[in-house]
Request: fold
Amino acid sequence: MSSSRWTTALAVALALVLAFVAFAASAQAPERSLSFAHKDWELVCDNTRTCRAAGYHAEGDDDMAGVSVLLTRKAGPREPVTGELLLASYGDDTQAAKLPKDARLGMFVDGRAVGTVVWADDSGGLALSPAQTQALLQALVGTGRVVWKAGKAQWALSNAGATAVLLKMDEFQGRVGTSGALVKRGAADEAAVAQPLPAPVVKAAATDDRPVTLGAQQKQQLLRALRAATPDADSCELLSGANAGAELEVRRLGRNQLLASGVCWTAAYNQGSGFWVINAREPYAPVLVTTDGSDYSAGTVSADHKGRGLGDCWHHEAWTWDGKAFVPTLSASTGQCRLIAPGGAWHLPTWVANVVPARP
Reply:
């Protein structure tokens, strides 16, 4: 394995582990989800049983422009697969950056033309037609070569790992052996496949958010309580060392509860803060939300971390205050670190929720 490929693989693996650990540490960790990757393809299925498979150009092929495809399928009988195309646009020297607006990209499978896609550099993923998506799926489970062309520029999609990923999607949604399976198709009707699950509904509660000033003695008592309530508290800068408590912030959530926070760790291109719900008066009885937080705003704690310094792959978490606790409402990645787009290529959630905004 080349050094660049090893670095990318290590960054992805580390980011995935960090995201899983952070979310698993919350009081209500998500279930019924799946993350799987093989070669140039990956699969993420969320708690509603919707699955998203993302494929990329062949890693290490420096002569080919970067490209990614997203295949999305909801759970349930006879649900179609939808496809989207994204050309690499990380930097001004990419082939996509040189395309004129509304340029037509010809799609080819083994040299056979399969229609066109109209380029728009500000639209995110470009929708593939149902016929193009079907042609793509047939090529992926075989040995077909899929290429998009515009003039002399071309973008080739790798099918290395696609069969394993699509089979895993079928397994997760209970489609193996049915007429709707993508890989191991059979004669069984789809009526018995896994049904979609509803996303949990979280009713956000209104928050006060005014800062709260603690006296020196109160702060020391709170710090002792935070240390006792935090696993591996010695690794949290806010809770250990000579400057413990120096950056402690406290804001009011409601009449009886506050939110305490402060930086816990700093890395090369990421930072994590601790967030705790505490009683407004002693005993503070802290409840840890996360030690990997990035921000707090109007009742939502978020954690946003790069998979590597280039910022082409991210992981996002969110917790929403419902008046009693911070409930997990999002866990997602943006896909592999492949220089597809600044901020990442796709939105690939493993945990979603319907958040009802707080009444003003």
User: Anything to note?
Assistant: Residues 50 and 74 are 4 Å apart (CA to CA). Helices lie at 3-24, 130-140, 162-172, 216-229.
